[in-house]
Amino acid sequence: MRVTREDKSPTRIIIKVAAEAADLEPIHQHVLSHFKNVKVPGFRAGKAPANLVEQNISQQQILDEFMEHALNELYRRAVDQEQVRPISTPNVKLKKFVPYSQMEFEAETEILGPIKLPNYKIIKLSKKKPEVTVKDVDEVIKSLQGRLAERTDVERPAKEGDELIIDFAGRDAAHMPVSGVDGTDYPLVLGSKAFIPGFEENLQSVKAGEIKEFEVSFPKDYGVAALQNKPVTFKVDVKKVSELKELKANDELAKKAGPFQTLKDLKADIKKQLLNEKQNQANNEYQNELMRKIAAKTEIEVPESLAQEENLRLEAQEKQNLAYRGQTWQEHLDSEGINEQEHRQRHYPEALERVKIGLILSEIASKENIQITPKELELRLQILKGQHQDPQMQAELSKESNQRDIEARLMTEKTLAKLTNYASS
């Protein structure tokens, strides 16, 4: 078998294969073995010679199966010979075929190009030690005081510090609903500045059962571009007004907040939880920065199809998150003031970086001979099953495809741990 290769780009090639009888006849015989139970006069099933079996079945049927097997087998051999890593189904063009004696074809496919890693073992990055301040703890205590406050419904006009339970919705100048500016049974504490400027001020002195309409313009630096400087007319239904009586920051607050006997115990637990959160965040930021440093020194060509595929995956994930929040995809695009194509272009660099880092991690894992043992995989599965008691989730975790995903995550974790050790030592 003769194999030649044409590089159209660092990630796209054409493999040309020319095979002769010596390559094709074993495949021919293998295909005939699939029909060994065909009945041939004078022979018991499975005992007739292959040439007689071939005479007693459809030649087209044999040819169809032969073509499938031959193309797959010869393409696999050619790929192995060229030592390339295809990432897409090849586009095959048959150039010549003389049954069982000659075959020539071309297969165009995307491949993983060469990855030239830097000496990642000498790339250093210092770690930042997370800290929890007294102010951090006091802010959590203040939040607890608000959540655990005693609530007393009142008929009087609302004032600063009261909690309102409201339904609200916004309409634009054309009296059309504005996406993302509505809510039901929303708890709003007057003076909390949870809403845009002007909203809470218009609800001063309202009473339970009152419906109020007013216009407020969104700030020019508002996070959603489509709403910046936009005037919106709100209709607010005040369902309840409650006076809040905050608990003092003492041992009684601690007992109401959880299994604590003293305020000191509560603060110690808050500090511990905050420290864990900050440490996890610091670890993620550290690993992201480390991988960006390694990626910046790595020579790699990312196949376009992988980047586009990752972009679509991120988009699907975003759509799912929006659905959970009750917002449609079109509403989201409208809020950002872009169309679907512009959205994909905006997020393409992120998708490209994700794929690039994923390929680099895979290459390093291979170089470092990092492997996941069956015991490690089983342990992670048991932990996940312990966290998810839902029978449907248990069944999902048992699926082979999901277990491969879990194994891939474990591989990433072990590789990042190895790189972190190099970078911080």
Task: Give structural notes.
The protein has 425 residues and is of the alpha+beta class. Among the domains are: 2-110, Trigger factor ribosome-binding domain (Alpha-Beta Plaits); 150-245, Chitinase A, domain 3 (Roll); 369-425, no CATH class. The chain has helices at 21-33, 50-55, 59-82, 134-147, 251-257, 263-296, 304-324, 329-336, 340-367, 374-387, 391-398, 400-424, and strands spanning 2-9, 12-20, 91-98, 102-110, 150-153, 163-171, 183-189, 211-217, 231-245. The strands form 2 sheets. Strands 5, 6, 7, 8 and 9 form a 5-stranded antiparallel beta sheet that branches. Strands 1-2-4-3 form a 4-stranded antiparallel beta sheet. A hairpin with a 3-residue loop joins β3 and β4 (102-110). α4 packs across α6 (263-296), α7 packs across α9 (340-367) and α9 crosses α12. It is elongated. It starts with a strand and ends with a helix.
SSE topology sketch:
Elements: E1 2-9, E2 12-20, H1 21-33, H2 50-55, H3 59-82, E3 91-98, E4 102-110, H4 134-147, E5 150-153, E6 163-171, E7 183-189, E8 211-217, E9 231-245, H5 251-257, H6 263-296, H7 304-324, H8 329-336, H9 340-367, H10 374-387, H11 391-398, H12 400-424
Antiparallel strand pairs: 1-2, 2-4, 3-4, 5-9, 6-7, 6-9, 8-9
Helix pairs in contact: 1-3, 4-6, 5-6, 7-9, 9-12, 10-12
